[in-house]
């Protein structure tokens, strides 16, 4: 759908309804974990979604947006520029796309190597700017997923912490796509335990407590394990079209 094809009233209403449903489920899960609804933020994963659909969400009060690909982040920026929102890059970042990312993203959640962190920091030095970051950890240990290995996370976190232009907010992971809570939960509990351990050792700053984890199919489990940010796509926008 191009930027010249407006949504129908029915399509817009359906997105708003699903947003409200996700917000209710998030609040209930947060309260069940002993926290308040405000302790968990909803980030809308907008991969392949046209700007028209994202605008409906922002106008409905959901202004935290996450893109998987730099080219989509860049392509949609102008169409969303008139609406106050916060853009995160949640997919892998190639070092040669750092410049484009820093023009449009307020946070990079996929820092998984010192080489990438240093490239970002160096470019920010030229721009005289800063950016928020998460360190991505591969808690599921799947070869297909990005992220630093859990046993190597402390060294990377400590190195990122020492880069002046990167504001370290916490850790991110992509959970194991299991079929049962018993399969899925360890990916999230391991990240929470890692965060707590790194704060205790001083590798992670005491205020870098955020945990970005959980998606449409498992976000309530992630919240139960301490997620402070969940990345929701299909529960709001529907299933992505097949390639």
Automatic annotation (TrEMBL):
GO terms for molecular function: pyridoxal phosphate binding. Pyridoxal 5'-phosphate (PLP)-binding protein, which is involved in PLP homeostasis. The modification N6-(pyridoxal phosphate)lysine is found at residue 47. Pfam families: Ala_racemase_N. It comes from Brevibacterium casei S18. Residues 39-241 form the Alanine racemase N-terminal domain. Keywords: Pyridoxal phosphate. Belongs to the pyridoxal phosphate-binding protein YggS/PROSC family. InterPro entries: Ala_racemase_N (IPR001608), PLP-binding_barrel (IPR029066), PyrdxlP_homeostasis (IPR011078). PANTHER family: PROLINE SYNTHETASE CO-TRANSCRIBED BACTERIAL HOMOLOG PROTEIN (PTHR10146), PYRIDOXAL PHOSPHATE HOMEOSTASIS PROTEIN (PTHR10146:SF14). The keyword NADP does not apply. Its cofactor is pyridoxal 5'-phosphate. This is Pyridoxal phosphate homeostasis protein.
């Amino acid at each position: 759908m191009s930027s010249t094809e407006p949504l129908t009233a029915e399509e817009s209403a359906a997105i708003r309804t699903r947003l409200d449903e996700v917000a209710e489920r998030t609040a209930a899960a947060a309260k069940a974990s002993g926290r308040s609804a405000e302790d968990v933020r909803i980030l809308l994963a907008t991969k392949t979604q046209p700007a028209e659909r994202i605008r409906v969400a922002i106008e409905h009060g959901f202004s935290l947006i996450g893109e998987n690909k730099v080219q989509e982040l860049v392509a949609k920026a102008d169409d969303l520029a008139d609406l106050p929102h916060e853009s995160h890059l949640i997919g892998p970042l190639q070092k040669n796309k750092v410049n484009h990312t820093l023009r449009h993203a307020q946070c990079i959640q996929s820092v998984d190597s010192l080489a990438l962190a240093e490239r970002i920091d160096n470019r920010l030095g030229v721009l005289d700017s800063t950016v928020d970051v998460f360190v991505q950890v591969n808690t599921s240990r799947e070869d297909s997923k990005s992220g630093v290995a859990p046993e190597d996370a402390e060294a990377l976190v400590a190195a990122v912490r020492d880069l002046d232009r990167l504001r370290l907010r916490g850790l991110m992971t992509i959970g194991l796509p299991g079929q049962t809570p018993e399969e899925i939960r360890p990916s999230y509990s391991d990240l929470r335990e890692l965060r707590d351990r790194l704060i205790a050792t001083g590798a992670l700053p005491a205020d870098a407590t955020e945990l970005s984890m959980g998606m449409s199919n498992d976000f309530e489990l992630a919240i139960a394990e301490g997620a402070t940010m969940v990345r929701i796509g299909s529960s709001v926008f529907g299933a992505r079209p097949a390639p």
